[in-house]
């Protein structure tokens, strides 16, 4: 029974790693080529190959060591490259909870605070 639970845990872990890799690959695929250069990151083909190999490894060669290496690449893309691409591509606008990104430190929830002036 313990082995069956562990097998289920590993299956869910593999599924989560595959999900993150597919999402990162789709985001890289949909991003503009010039945004990668403007953000001073690796090229779009580099990230497509790296993330594509990650997805292929997760689907066809489910070895945990290789999946963890791919997971690191996916996390680096999602945490470092994706925000840089959004900044360069003008992905600003409203962020989470309706607040504008990059606002002043004196901005309140209903707009800028001007001290009653």
TrEMBL record:
Q: Using the UniProt annotation, give all residue ranges assigned to the region (Disordered).
A: 86-117
Its domain of life?
Bacteria
User: Among its keywords, does the record have Transmembrane?
Assistant: yes
Keywords annotated in UniProt: Membrane, Transmembrane, Transmembrane helix
Which InterPro entries does the record associate with it? DUF2516
Is Membrane one of the keywords?
Answer: yes
Segments traversing the membrane: 9-31, 46-79
The UniProt regions of compositional bias labelled Low complexity, in chain numbering, are 103-117
Name of protein = DUF2516 family protein
């Amino acid at each position: 029974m313990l082995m069956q639970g562990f097998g289920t845990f590993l299956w869910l872990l593999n599924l989560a790693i595959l999900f993150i890799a597919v999402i990162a690959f789709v985001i890289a695929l949909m991003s503009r080529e010039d945004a990668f250069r403007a953000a001073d990151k690796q090229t779009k083909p580099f990230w497509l190959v790296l993330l594509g190999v990650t997805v292929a490894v997760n689907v066809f060669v489910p070895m945990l060591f290789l999946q963890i290496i791919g997971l690191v690449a996916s996390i680096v893309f999602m945490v470092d490259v994706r925000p840089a691409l959004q900044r360069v591509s003008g992905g600003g606008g409203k962020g989470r909870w309706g607040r504008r990104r990059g606002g002043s430190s004196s901005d309140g929830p209903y707009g800028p605070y001007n001290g009653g002036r």
